[in-house]
Amino acid sequence: MFINKIKIDGFRNIGDEIFFPSKKVNILFGENANGKTSYIEAIYSVSNLKSFRTSNLNETINNLRNISTINCEYILNECNNTLNLKINKNGRSYLKNDKETKVENYLWSLFTIIFKPEDILLIGGSPSKRRELIDKAIFFIDKDFIKTLKKYYKIVSNKNICLKTNNLKNIEEWNILIAKYSSLIVLKRNKYIERINKIFEDNIFKFKYFYKIENDINISKNELENYFLKEIVKNTNKELKYSYSIVGAHKQNIDFSINNKDLKKFGSQGQKRTFILLFKSSQIIDFQNTHSFSPVLLLDDMASELDDNNKNIFYEIIEKFSGQTFITTTDKKLFSDFKNVSRFFVEDGKISSFS
Q1: pTM of the model
Q2: What is the chain's mean pLDDT, rounded?
Q3: Quick one: which of 314, 293, 295, 82 has its CA closest to 207?
Q4: Are 354 and 242 spatial neighbours (Cβ–Cβ below 8 Å)?
């Protein structure tokens, strides 16, 4: 899978530009606030129908325009495909191969995996953000997983209403459903974490530190549903006291470790950034094992806080395992000694190639 042409008009500070990236590594160099990140944001937005920088897509519209458009041509299994996204003040509209389609079919078209500097905040942030990191990764390989999550959170919401209104008539039914869906979700999370940890353990990446994803619910498949039912019963008084469901997949704790120590407490900023990049790299390998092709990798300012050795290791990862990659940087010489690298200069929203 790779993008062979993307036309952007009125997105952020990008006026009317056509970008022909290479199939492999694309370095977008430029000073800060000139539009490098806007290019990978446009790629992410057209593939995911949302931005990674704002919750409101209409905020990406250029101040001098009423409409923003992103037209993307990509190749998958030697077939040409197009995605078209139009953003205006009232919302968005989108087409796949010039036809309207269901949102879930659209989202399973052009797969993009993003790394951004603020991702390291996930490590020390709320547990929900770490669960979300795993859940988003699972969605890339399991189209129905998001439907299971939506059903589950609707069930939790209904139970919470019962608890808050002290209407406990149907509470047992909600408890049974929470146990059932929690077991499905936790099982998928645990299997995914196990696969990613196996990639870490295989020492593919030659890092001197041992990273691992930890979780607090390691129960066999046959016992999971029973486990949740027992935990709900055990915590009944607490749930009645707080009027909130405190047992289930929405409370699973996922953490990250370095050399068997808590990464958020004992890891440096560089080690945390290395872990996130390592996770994204492992995600690509797991994706390839499932789909037999590579997603598009977007790395925003990946080089900061990494030493030269780790930069070289990551280039080897990209070269060996990833498909098309886009990297933004202020370092003009980043990966300048490596092959299969195309370099582009971004200034005031305009993009041009340079050597």
Answers
A1: 0.88
A2: 90
A3: 314
A4: no
